[in-house]
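Q: What structure does this chain adopt?
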Amino acid sequence: MSGNVPAPGEAPMPAANAAALLRRNASDPSIAGRVAVRAGDETWTHGAYVDECCRWAQLFLSRRTDDAPFHVGVLLDNVPEYLFALGGAALAGATVVGLNPTRVGEHLVRDATHTDVAFVVTEPRHESTVEPLSSSMEVLVAGSSLDKALASVPEGDPGIEPDASTPWALIFTSGTSGAPKAVICSQRRIMVTGTRMGIILGVGPDDVGYVCMPLFHSNAVMVGWAPSLVYGCSVALARRFSASGWLPDVRRYGATYWNYTGKPLAYLLATPQHADDAKNPLRVAYGNEGAPRLVEAFARRFDVQVIDAFGATEGGVAVQRVDGMPDGAVGLAGEHVRVVDAETGAERPRARFGADGTLENPTECVGEIVNTGGVGPFEGYYNNDEANARTMRNGWYWSGDLGYLDADGYLFFAGRNADWIRVDGENFPAGPIENAVLRHPDVLAGAVYGVPDAQAGDQVMASLVLRDGASFDGAAFASFVDGLADVGPKWRPRYVRVCRELPRTPTNKVLARVLVHEKFRLDRVGPGDAVWVRGRDDASYRPFDAGAEAALRDEFAANGRARFWDL
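A:
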């Protein structure tokens, strides 16, 4: 291959900054004429893409002020304009703040204010969402005010050479258990991650990435889009993930790699199966949070290699996936990756397993996953000294994730720190219970979390989405739970909520805080879902109806715990 395009899986020549990378793609004859972006029937070559990014860079510079951070809010679906904004920011030295369209009202105002957004770019379908911001900042809407603004700016590359350490994006964490934090992602970090992901995925100039995860999240930017810049290939955009539209899009665009996060594998496996599902161009998928049985079933059905890795937006902990890993492991921990007591920093004992694979010492071995060698690629949270101090204390990177290590150094994920449950004085993580419950053949997706007990501590609650055509049988499910060797009596769910769907972030992560708030309250759960309850010695789950709810509320009040009812 002529020019600077690397062979598949081969690291390219590094660029000094993201602006230089874009200029290389536009000027190198071996790259410039290749398609960079595909969306529906529209395409942009790398040369045309950079030309458009120059217009956006000039737009951003026309609105830059000396007394405020150069931060541009972007609230768009996965449309080409999102990528033009990212490219324009690279050329102007600006920072894109990816705003989440499901964060509305005061929450959206909080996110924009917290990150010092100067003005916002959006589209008509989200115009009402950003209305609360319009009183304090300019809002440019695609198809109207945005188009007029772009038409009025100077032509050409502004010729700026940003430092590689310039923040290119502020990417919010998912906020599954609290307010999202804005992770600083410099031009260097996104380029380095794009290079590394290209090597892992074997990306070459002829590859096509399919990006249907939201572009305001790190998974889409760093795994889906960044490799296309570094390796001179292309990406195809879908506004949003659609289980029914996924395979037709993969075939239509000739997609060869795909990024996912959360539960898309489960949703895709729930679609009607066809004999030709494996006839598609996709060769590799990369993501996280896929249950092992789902990963295997997906790989087999669609004939694709699935790399399900452990990771977070911050990127402070890395593990190595190797062949022959134990079931459930996320990878082999390096010498600096440890599992420690969150309070003392003391290393936790290694996990012990019974002959049947049951984890025998969960209360001893589960702790917080840390990187004692430093913070890795993590560059800090924007405007959040408290979170920075907590995450980087003692010179370590504290992930906020729970896990355990086996005797051979394999790391197992056990949930988030917010996922600890305390029943009858015993603390344990929700993750292993959730993994066990998901083994039920009728359960498509689920979440396990703690809800308040009427007397003290917590009780275990599970929210489940069943496969089409399945119904919940209280006695049969109780028998299934009792037969789980790795779920002890205190770990068994007291409450089960059968859901039409789980509340999720746009990146398909379950919003645990929403489920915890709704708990077993029928006025919050809503009429479409059903709640079931099981007493300590009951052989079956029974419907949790209005009478049972009233009695439980009275019990909370009698024990002086009425405040927990409304939390």
